[in-house]
Amino acid sequence: MARRTTAPPISWLMQLTLERPGLISLAAGFTDDETLPAREAKAALTELLSESKSSRIALQYGSTAGDPTLRRLTTERWSRQDNNPPWTQQIDPAKNLLITNGSQQLLYLVAECLCDPGDIVLVEDPTYFVFLGIAQSHGLRCRGITLTDAGMDLAHLEQVLEDLKRSGGLSRVKFLYCVSYFQNPTGRTTAWTVKAGALELLRRYERAAGHPLYLLEDAAYRELRFAGEDVPSTLTFKQAYQRVIYTGTYSKPFATGVRVGFGWLPDALFTPVHRLKGNHDFGTTSLLQQLLVRVLESGQYDRHLEVLRRRYAHKAKIMTAAMQETFPPRVTWLTPRGGLYVWGRAPRSWKTGIGSRVFEQALQQDVLYVPGRLCYAKDPTRRVPQHEMRLSFGNASDGDLRAGIQRLGTVLHAAGNA
Ligand SMILES: Cc1ncc(COP(=O)(O)O)c(C=O)c1O
């Protein structure tokens, strides 16, 4: 594993952002500094540490699965968002919920638990590039599923499953990974019908695979919606409780420094993933879990979320208005309705990768973005597109968003004229 694991681009991007103070980073997924909930966190922590019972819980080791109150509150939260799916009345959904160190840990645990080197994971094309690092490190092969505006292209998913069945590769497929809300990196949200179609396709191919084919729904940005309606998750489907792994996070909607996430797992997976977590860390930091319990119970979390939603709606508007004003008309993007990202698409011949003229000139102008190619899995059945960029409106100030986009616009105009 040590020999196989390459340097994750996320570490380099974050390091560069922290080391070059003049740099306007539209790259790493840092969140908005101005709205970090310092006052709310301070009040909750002070309260927590002033009572002897709660301070003992907060400053002591806890259980591997997580604090029972936080597990219950988390389960109630997603059940409410999904209108209390009927199956949750029959079994207690909180018993299969694991609190993790960010949702990142859940992604890692699931990959580690389900996959052996050489196994295959189906991913969106493009997808969350840090997940690709986990796959790379574990020696997994990925097959990319083309995206439409409504999420995965089901016809392509079927074609890939059929190809794998014919070539004898289906038995190595373990799960399909889907970032379903305001996807990182494209900002797209998966329609409910697409989720239903994907689950149905996986079910159809299970017999040929010889084992369950899970759908891992990563809902990291679900709560950061600032336009449109919420889309129900895969947990709403009948029998989903046997085939769906659902993960979410308190990082992005509260504070990224409070690295607490969660995963809901089917019975067959809960025990092994729970055991693996025991080997990793035997429990997420109690202090942070107790902080979350306080802010969730007091309503501070929801009030803060409203502030964040307004703030990101405002920042998304600033970014896209600046793009409209300064980018060459041949660069296109979708207007974000939530999350932190705008996916810019230049004409195919304009390269945006590390080492390309656009990337280097942007860096010279002190602007950093995530080259789109980093978000594509290594899939030998197609070429990796080179002409896209992920732009985040999460961290930069309003002024820096305008200045950064303007500078990038100049660089892109030069690329268009070259
Ligand atoms: C799609 C997606 N999933 C998971 C994560 C991990 O977030 P955390 O570990 O902070 O919950 C991120 C972080 O950027 C993400 O973009």
Structural notes for this entry:
This protein has helices at 9-19, 38-50, 52-58, 68-81, 87-90, 102-114, 129-137, 154-167, 192-209, 240-243, 267-280, 286-298, 300-326, 357-364, 398-417; strands spanning 24-25, 97-101, 120-125, 141-148, 151-152, 173-179, 214-218, 244-249, 260-264, 341-345, 367-368, 370-371, 388-392. It has 418 residues and is an alpha/beta fold. Helix 7 links the parallel strand 3 and strand 4. The longest helix has 27 residues, at 300-326. The radius of gyration is 21 Å and the shape is globular. The termini are far apart. The model has no long low-confidence stretch (mean pLDDT 95). The protein binds pyridoxal-5'-phosphate. Residues 29, 102-104, 128, 179, 184, 218, 220, 249, 251, 256, 259, 261 line the site of pyridoxal-5'-phosphate.
List the helices and strands and how they pair.
Blueprint: H1 9-19, E1 24-25, H2 38-50, H3 52-58, H4 68-81, H5 87-90, E2 97-101, H6 102-114, E3 120-125, H7 129-137, E4 141-148, E5 151-152, H8 154-167, E6 173-179, H9 192-209, E7 214-218, H10 240-243, E8 244-249, E9 260-264, H11 267-280, H12 286-298, H13 300-326, E10 341-345, H14 357-364, E11 367-368, E12 370-371, E13 388-392, H15 398-417
Parallel strand pairs: 1-11, 3-4, 3-6, 6-7, 7-8
Antiparallel strand pairs: 2-9, 4-5, 8-9, 10-13, 12-13
Bound molecules: pyridoxal-5'-phosphate.
Pyridoxal-5'-phosphate binds next to helix 6.
Strand order of the largest sheet: 2-9-8-7-6-3-4-5
Span between N and C termini? 43 Å
Alpha carbon gyration radius: 21 Å
**Shape estimate:** globular
Sheet having the most strands: 8 strands, mixed
Question: How would you spell out the order of helices and strands?
Answer: HEHHHHEHEHEEHEHEHEEHHHEHEEEH
The number of E-state strands comes to 13
Which segments are poorly predicted (pLDDT under 50) over 5 or more consecutive residues?
Answer: none
Share of helical residues: 40-55%
Average the pLDDT over all residues and give the rounded result.
Answer: 95
Figure out the total of helices. Answer: 15
Strand content: 5-15%
